[in-house]
């Protein structure tokens, strides 16, 4: 259970991954950090120069050495959390780090909850809520594009953009409330048109941010990529080739793959969520295979990228697949090119490969990378990409602006316009944490690892 946040608590946690390593890090943050670490190190912390690593020993109550460590002190507010922080770098064994943590708890610290160090940094104004989320994205990034987007968010680009929009709405609100305070001064058509134009510009900026939702999903979760086709065209072989190891069973027997198989792979800086599906054929009485084909069809319809695999050595079918939706990308792949190319395929634009000898696989990866990056991810210098929480806030702000514009068009009920503009400001403020709720904060910081 997550503790109720106590601002005067001193918290401690191991900040490095569990397991044997050369070095492990224990982080202690709070008003009593120096007192606690002094107890652990026989007074070394209070004598330690700020931001300079000091060699010392951590001892038990009876004077037994627990570990020889490097101690670094960061005085408030010049630390990650904005509080006094002591970082103890010890030998990275599991038992050693556990003993150091237990010693800090015995000396007065409390075990930190997941994300509590970053949460304290947020409360102390060291970063806004979007930057905190950017840190989580940075930790979990698996591709260079995801890493770049996380760095941009950690630097506060999204927070600054939403704060600018909030300030622009505030300016409009000031004009509206001025007319409310002086009812004898009706809003002239010219002034009303100017306010409406400003609000439409703000709404357009919000729509541009909302348009990055798919990009954010792809950067964080990967591109849903379905591999589909008839039985024995080499779908599972292609999955194995892209992964670089034998994940799926490969057989000449039709119906070998009966359920969907999902794995992740980095292709050209893009994370693909590869989904191998059961082969689609017209006639089968096997109920398990029928269910597998039903699932294949569902995956095909919901994928961001569809890889249609055909046997290059047999005639081209009368109809080739098309994207299942306007937003889906489709690549037609001719496998088994080592067995020869049937003449009927010559007029079609396809990617030709052989899963047996690896021919064409680099070209396929390049095609996937270029298609996805240029059409979905890479939009120039900025990679701002909102998440589901941001999307919800932006939509609420957009709806409030729509309502305000409708009321302005009637030139009546300025009080309602004022309320709508305040609602839009509140929704935008939630993004960076200017207006927060304990429930939202609890959800966000619970996703962090302990020690961060």
Report helical residue fraction.
40-55%
Structural class: alpha/beta
Order of helices and strands: EEHHEEEHEHHHHHHEHEEHEEEHHHH
Task: Count the E strands.
Answer: 12
Q: For the CA atoms, what is the radius of gyration?
A: 29 Å
Gap between N and C termini: 17 Å
Number of helical elements: 15
Short description:
This protein has 452 residues and is an alpha/beta fold. The chain has helices at residues 33-41, 44-47, 94-106, 116-123, 129-140, 144-154, 157-181, 189-210, 213-221, 235-243, 287-302, 361-377, 388-410, 414-432, 438-446, and strands at residues 11-14, 21-29, 54-59, 65-74, 85-92, 110-111, 223-229, 261-267, 270-276, 305-311, 329-335, 351-352.
